């Protein structure tokens, strides 16, 4: 949905120059060429151009985020995620065996800001144990929780909620920063009765669902108040934050839209190491080459980045040769190890209602009210029981005893991002530590054909077991006495299903959380597997790095540290 520019101006938005046509650029040779203007690409663009001696070009395939009301209004996120539209690549997965052979839509953003311009705005860091495991596996302590925390702070600009309510007891200021760039806040409107019931549940069921003052402290287990990338009642994306007017006006920073990169060009091999001149991209039906004199940085995401690598001859030699693509660098791990987190909902009829039109009018007038956030109030982070039967045959895939297996987000309305118009409440359940793996592969040697996306969802016993347990935990939550006079009935009732029937429900209703990662995985410098070293340079290549979610999930932080690693190489 687009709104007139004059209305956007009245809403207090500012615009900065973004190039729409390649002819507007002063040239096509830069120190750094960044592929993709998403979470990582825009962080890198911002941080690298802090050095006025660096020239940076960012190539973005998608359209501008300016004037896209569905991206601005937090509650309108479903308009971007619920079907084909101009701000999506409109991908579809291969048939998923674990989803009863369903092919499902796979949301990837086709808009400045990437998925930060159309994701669910959840601000969740994960557990300290996750990062410490990365540091151990890669042999680089810089990826540990303690070493990355300053980068979380560098990214985050903790902001008051839109309604300016007293947030005492709803978060821990000691683990947040008000000095960063990307806005993060608590919910900007209240559902007092519902919120009180959630908190009362933590008192009535403290063993199962203890209260957690701040799940972004590195120890997420428990139930905490929902935090999101929202500021002043609107979405805070990498486009609105890292490319804000004071940054985009730098003379050494150029961002070009409608520029789809197809492959790396000009490969040369010296002493067994491959280098490239730059990238080829398409705009308006013509092909152009952008040259990078220092480094090409792929930030096209967990789907785009491996596709570009493979189209450039970087990947499994045999697979590429079979497609008629000349192998330049044999890295079999490219596109492999795809990891995603399945999600689905459980819903209950509930005594509550809010009028859509009144809430929308309030947002238009003051950027306050229910439309300033998702109808989510809290997140519960839980683990499987240590004596769960699944652990007789499966090693716990979590990073440690303080790392959750399950995320349950709790809110009013039916489904994620639904308008608070009905009398319902829903729990969204996410499997955080899947053991299923998929892949990103090519279907042809035409770099503009969409890749084959196989997230490999729910194909292991552990994953379907964990999905069932998430249902059991959600039903346990609403067994707290405080819910007795508010919940009418679940729709449908999952608690009375047989195991087989519940598995069928899950496989027929689960879909992606959009969290695909690790398709260009990082590994120790001398590891025989993986795609990048801990310094984020591609193994066996020079002047080519990957900095995005194909490395790991905490994209903003990967990019913040990645920017420092790049600076260290060239200053």
UniProtKB/TrEMBL annotation:
Keywords: FAD, Flavoprotein, Signal. Residues 1-16 form the signal peptide. The keyword Lyase does not apply. It comes from Mycena sanguinolenta. Belongs to the GMC oxidoreductase family. Residues 301-315 form the Glucose-methanol-choline oxidoreductase N-terminal domain. This is GMC oxidoreductase. Its cofactor is FAD. It comes from the Eukaryota. The keyword Lipid biosynthesis does not apply. GO terms for molecular function: flavin adenine dinucleotide binding; oxidoreductase activity, acting on CH-OH group of donors. FAD binds at residue 261. InterPro entries: FAD/NAD-bd_sf, GMC_OxRdtase, GMC_OxRdtase_N, GMC_OxRtase_C.
